[in-house]
Amino acid sequence: MAWDSIVGHGQQVRVLKTALGTGRLAHAYLCAGPEGSGKESVAFEIARILNCSSPDATGDRGACGECESCRQAERFMHPNIEYLFPVEAVLLEPSDPSKKENKKLTEAKERYDALIEEKKRNPYFTPAMERSMGILTEQVVSLQQKASLAPREGGRKVFIISQAERLHPSAANKLLKLLEEPPAHVVFILVSSRPESVLPTIRSRCQLVSFQRVKPAELEAWISNSAAGVDETGRRFIASFSRGNLRTATELLAGRSGEESAPALVRLRDQAIDFLRNLLTPVRFHEAIAACEEVARNLTRPEQLMFLGSLLLFFQDVARRGASPSCPELNNLDIAVSVDRFVKGFPARDLLRASTIVEEAMRSIERNANVTLVMAGLAVELKEVLGKGG
Question: How does DSSP classify residue 33?
Fold first, then answer.
């Protein structure tokens, strides 16, 4: 990652470059904005620059990416860069070196390592252990101890606290004490998608840097530069589906198979439209139910969510064409004929209710509900809501 690889957020980057270049970097920042907006990638770039052997802090390069410090940061092994996120309490319990690690601890370590590996692959991924109760007191106590030590090999200590809104109350109070009397060699960067939930006294001691969702044009340009094999249809669809979320966009690009230019999402979109077509054709309802079983059996959870998300984008296009038949701004421009056909064939459509049904199904799948039952219920409800116009 480098300054010129940050997607969007030109004003925020300019402000931070100026602070770095003039030596006026604040002791604490709160990077706030929507999930997947890239705020953590900016936090890590600051950390790398402050420890790089030959940084270009105010230029496009930022950290050099080649020195030992940059390589350590890339591997999440830099002694001056601490990354906190919600972990399971078992990882923080004192261990007895004379005893073998118990199964619970070993499994927790494996889950933690898997999250770090995913973060390495996707810098926009936000890790959190499902069994965690938040960022715990022991984690901040460890920060207090490390903050008292001088940084190794020069540079600055940088503490990046992901999901700062999940600080346990006692952990937040201990962090507050650190922020009230910050060591000169430490920079704190708190990151949050819900800054209103961060303790007000902590917010008041941080300089706020606000991030927004990445604009579609910026996202398409980034996709074009980072994945040249994706054609215009694929770029537009990924940009629409991800809704400015870089994590989602990165996952969709990673899901491409072989040398195909169309991402897996386009194929899932086509399956979703076929499912909807069969669902609303009386003699093909059984095929729609069979598709429900196939989605549950053969697709991963991310793919299941993409399948349903494709329906939401299709409904959005139908709404646009219904309001303005010549509207050119479509998520699915390559299947505009199908969109127009749906507009004409289902005049009594209740797209708001249909979208709500799909969103509820997505939330159920995210909560690990039985996918077969969720999809079957979705099929019945969508047929009732949309089939009236056929």
Answer: -
